[in-house]
């Protein structure tokens, strides 16, 4: 069975963790959901971010999401692609050298990478977006530009594809983000 690596962590956005995990399993991938310093079977706490008319998103408690693989056992060559979720987790995940090493390895091999919302902070910290067109949650756009990426402003329901990289501003873009990631992975769904 082909495998996908999904990077997540405490206070990752709930939908941005659960939905890609479930969708990728639905189409036949084995998804290894991992978090630094945690092992298979342990859980992370997620947060639900919503857009309720305030100047920024609101945050509410999400679910306890069970990890399916131990972070310390990750070998990049075992995976077809990488998913980087958003929420608050990327703020601290980008400080982990091993996380950055993993992202750089996927990028160097031109493997499919899907990142959403604040997950783009990890791409910027890994220095893998120079010259790439991508989107993110708008508050992350300065980091995209500072890392040499070309920030593309799109509606939250959209996705941006540049080669092996698929990005979206937030969970309202899941349908297009996941559909585009599946295309980059070479998955065909016939109805």
- E-strand count: 11
Instruction: Name the shape in a single word.
Output: globular
The neighbouring-strand order within the major sheet is 3-1-6-7-11-10
Distinct helical segment count: 6
Can you describe what's shown?
By secondary structure, the chain is an alpha/beta fold. It has a single domain, classed as Rossmann fold. The chain contains six helices and eleven strands. Strands 3-1-6-7-11-10 form a six-stranded mixed β-sheet, with helices on both faces. It has a three-stranded mixed β-sheet with strand order 2-4-5, covered by helices on one side. It has a two-stranded parallel ribbon with strand order 8-9. The longest helix is centred in the first third of the chain and has 13 residues. The protein is globular, with a radius of gyration of 15 Å. The mean pLDDT is 96.
What are the key terms here?
191 residues; alpha/beta; Rossmann fold; 3-stranded mixed β-sheet; 11 strands; 25% strand
Concise synopsis of the structure shown:
This protein has 191 residues and is an alpha/beta fold.
Q: Topology, pairings included?
A:
Blueprint: E1 3-7, E2 12-13, H1 14-26, E3 30-34, E4 43-50, E5 58-66, E6 81-84, H2 89-93, H3 97-108, E7 113-116, H4 120-125, E8 133-134, H5 141-146, E9 150-151, E10 160-162, E11 165-168, H6 174-185
Parallel strand pairs: 1-3, 1-6, 2-4, 6-7, 7-11, 8-9
Antiparallel strand pairs: 4-5, 10-11
């Amino acid at each position: 069975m082909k495998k996908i690596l999904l990077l997540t962590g405490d206070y990752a956005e709930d939908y941005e963790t659960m939905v890609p995990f479930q969708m990728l399993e639905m189409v036949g991938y084995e998804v290894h959901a991992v978090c630094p310093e945690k092992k298979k079977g342990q859980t992370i706490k997620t947060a639900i971010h919503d857009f309720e008319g305030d100047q920024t998103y609101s945050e509410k408690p999400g679910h306890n999401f069970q990890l399916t693989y131990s972070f310390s056992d990750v070998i990049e060559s075992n995976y077809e692609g990488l998913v980087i979720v958003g929420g608050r987790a990327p703020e601290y995940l980008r400080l982990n050298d091993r996380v950055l090493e993993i992202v750089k390895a996927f990028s160097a091999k031109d493997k499919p990478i899907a990142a959403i919302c604040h997950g783009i902070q990890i791409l910027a910290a890994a220095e893998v977006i120079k010259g790439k067109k991508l989107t993110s949650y708008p508050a992350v756009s300065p980091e995209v530009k500072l890392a040499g990426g070309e920030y593309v402003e799109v509606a939250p329901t959209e996705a941006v594809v540049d080669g092996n990289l698929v990005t979206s501003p937030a969970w309202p873009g899941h349908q297009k983000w996941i559909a585009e990631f599946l295309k980059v992975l070479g998955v065909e769904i016939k109805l």
